[in-house]
């Protein structure tokens, strides 16, 4: 059987490459032709003529049991399964380990098969990020705006600490239904303190900035090997490792810094709760009248 013009199953399409959008019939046929069968030959799409040894066209070849077994994973493959596989790889090995080829291997399918469900790697990362926004949602906002924002902030922090690779994605324009649900939930909580939509947006950014900043600091401290992340553990270690800086600290030139480093610092969770309390106190004082 001639294989001229087929695409090897292990070739990963570059992100953003031109092609038909996922879900179109043409894209599905391309993926089907790219998948080798049990004998190492590309499987023709239904209705494609199969050439005989004599080179003459023949009627479509009925699927063998081997082909039926091989088609089962493709027929049950969904974008949700692809996203779940990507999340598992990112959580276990980091974002840099996620690729279309790696996800396909985890699912036991050919790489090109993924493109009938997900357009490219960028689209996969956007879906993965939106899936995590589902974890940001809380089941109950509580009786008032402050309880609602507190619960959302705590839940978001927990999610970031559980999936630190998401911070490496930075600010991306992609939106998904779960992100919209998260925004709606935060707005619902903020609307309890002010009806000004511009102020609600500012409150959202303030809470997000606090959560992301605290989570980033905690993850950085853990990366330095601190058993319990503390606010200045990295600074203390760098000063102790540098004799010149250690000498400056011991000389009394920086008395406030020396005192802070000498005192026991609060744990990361306590720091976060304190910072969140201060932030919400300020919001409450600003919009106490509910306007």
From TrEMBL:
GO molecular function, one term: transcription cis-regulatory region binding
PROSITE patterns documented for this protein: HTH_TETR_2
Signal sequence, start to end: none
Region ranges (Disordered): 1-77
One GO term of the biological process aspect: negative regulation of DNA-templated transcription
UniProt domain HTH tetR-type: residue ranges: 76-136
Keywords from the UniProt entry: DNA-binding, Transcription, Transcription regulation
Keyword DNA-binding recorded: yes
Gene3D superfamilies: Homeodomain-like (1.10.10.60), Tetracycline Repressor, domain 2 (1.10.357.10)
Cell membrane in keyword set: no
DNA-binding region(s), residue ranges: 99-118
The protein's name in its UniProt record: TetR family transcriptional regulator
Source organism of this protein record: Parafrankia colletiae
